[in-house]
Predict the structure.
Amino acid sequence: MAARIGATPEKTGAKRLDRPTIISAGLELAEATGAASLSIRDLGAKLGTDPTAIYRHFRSKDDLMRALLDELAVRSLREVTAPPEDWRERLRQLANATLTQFAQYPAVGQEGIVLTTRGPGELDVIELMLDAFSRAGLTGDDLVQHYALMATHVLSTAAGVARSRTERAAAGAAGSTPWFEGPLLVDPIKHPHVAAISAQLLALEDRELFALGVESVIRSAERVAHSA
């Protein structure tokens, strides 16, 4: 975890305020509210302390968000149970767990595409992905490029799904998130291809496309390794 266990705890009423406590409360707040952003003021109220006390443990809000994201990385890694030699399944499990964590804590997850945590959870995720693609037979630039492609797809798409689900929840919508918000009204003369497959486009769902992207990167790794 990104928390510095050695930080000096503080008493806040009946609670001890330290980095792990703040991280835990931050995730509880993000999950309970389903909000699009995490408020330091709300976090302070949940902890029963002045919000400024949080800045004794985190230099800035971004620093706090990095710690929360790193905790989501740690939790995602716990869901990877396939053995190292089953590199494809390990990548799938990691990707699916990341999507689940980001969707569960959208106020945190949507920051995944813009913040680098620099924490041990993130480093462990990078190590797992590099190990997986190495076992696929990739080396050098091919290894780095496939890692970067998978990481970009997983983080950006999962962050987008998290934001979209938050917006739909605020609007009172439920269920899976469609790729296109319908109806898809187009002029068939100007856009004949769009009109011809509008029903299929409206049927696309976020998790389906997320999984397709993961499988595309895995197949690309297989092709490149076999052609080397």
